[in-house]
Specification:
251 residues, 10 strands, globular, disordered N terminus
Length: 251
């Protein structure tokens, strides 16, 4: 979801400052499951935040508030990425999200391929890493995404396009063409009875197969959802149906 679509007033400045000062961070690793044999193909590292009572706070609210201060956003994003990488489950691919604004705040010099804080950090990771790029909501996001994809590719880091078919996003065909993985938003599962919507979804999946890109369907919560995923012909699934395999870590 676009950060700008969430009201920052839902998160007080005092609470945000407390989270940052105390580094009340966590990470939840959610498995990405192969549809054919139910094996864990990869994990996605998701940022988690907590208040003074150790209660979880919605990450989208935190990141929406952080976008008012790009440097603070970068500070928190970088701390999250370090936490996610150091605690990553061994022997599995790791998918991590990276906000476009955070990425460009991490630019330290004129060479986007070698002077970026995040690229430097990712290159130190010994496992296979896939960087998820948030589906763009405006043309400037798409331009930044393309630069990120190029930079990651120059260092043999694969990329995935997240939130495809989310109602708040717009699809850049060039970004879609250049990523290695396509992640379909949970809205697809929620609209599994919507025939006209599924015409578009099936067309995207058909393109992905022809282009040899793997498709991951998010939002799988029931066995009916799992059967729906099979009917679409996606390769991988992700969601709360597999919550017994989630791994949670606190900083």
């Amino acid at each position: 979801m676009s950060h700008s679509s969430i009201s920052n007033s839902l998160l007080s400045s005092d609470l945000l400052l407390s989270i940052i000062e105390k580094q009340a961070f966590g990470v939840e690793y959610q498995p990405i499951i192969a549809l054919d044999n139910q094996a864990i193909f990869a994990y996605e590292a998701l940022s988690r935040f907590f208040d003074d009572a150790q209660q979880p706070i919605r990450p989208d609210l935190v990141f929406a508030a952080l976008h008012d201060s790009p440097l603070t956003l970068h500070q928190v994003e970088l701390a999250q990425k370090k936490l996610q990488l150091v605690n990553a489950p061994s022997g599995k691919r790791l998918f991590i999200n990276l906000d476009q604004d955070s990425y460009f705040q991490g630019q330290q010099g004129i060479d986007a391929d070698s002077d970026n804080t995040y690229v430097t950090l990712f290159k130190q990771f010994t496992g296979e890493l896939v960087v998820e790029i948030i589906e763009n909501s405006e043309i400037n996001d798409a331009k930044m995404s393309l630069q990120m994809i190029k930079s990651m590719g120059n260092h043999q880091i694969k990329t995935a396009l997240d939130d495809v078919c989310n109602e708040h996003s717009m699809l850049s065909t060039m970004v879609l063409e250049r990523v290695d993985y396509i992640k379909l938003d949970r809205l697809v599962v929620q609209n599994k009875e919507n025939h006209s919507f599924l015409l578009l979804v099936n067309a995207l999946i058909g393109y992905a197969k022809e282009a040899e890109k793997a498709v991951i369907l998010e939002g799988i919560e029931t066995f009916d959802d799992l059967e729906f995923a099979r009917s679409l012909g996606v390769t991988y699934v992700q969601g709360f149906l597999f919550k017994d395999k989630f791994i949670k870590v606190r900083s």
